[in-house]
Fold:
Amino acid sequence: MPFKNKMFDGVLLKDVLHHVGKPEKVLKEIDRVAVGGSIIILIEANRYNPLFYIHMTKILKHEHLTRKQFKKLIGERFANAAFYHFESHYYPNELVQGFLKLFQFFMEKTPFLNNLLSYNVAVINK
Structure:
């Protein structure tokens, strides 16, 4: 990236890492341009979320990371990363929204479904 070392006090990437050929290099650059004490937030879709998998992975050919791959990739560069997971979808139809809210509630509260939540998040305090 064409930025000086330690130039930013915050970095946010959403759904970027699965689009680059070498995400390790992107993480190295983020580490380089972020100042000490900064916050880095990395958000990536979960490959095996039931809604994303069909639409994004199978149809659109996105190579989303699994939760395990995401944690390994981030953890190799940022050992102090904290990981979170959440479900998030929006549909303009109220009936569908009600169903998705119920779906989201059960996914978040059920341990074996929790692994399928739609987004993986890493928060790094540099």
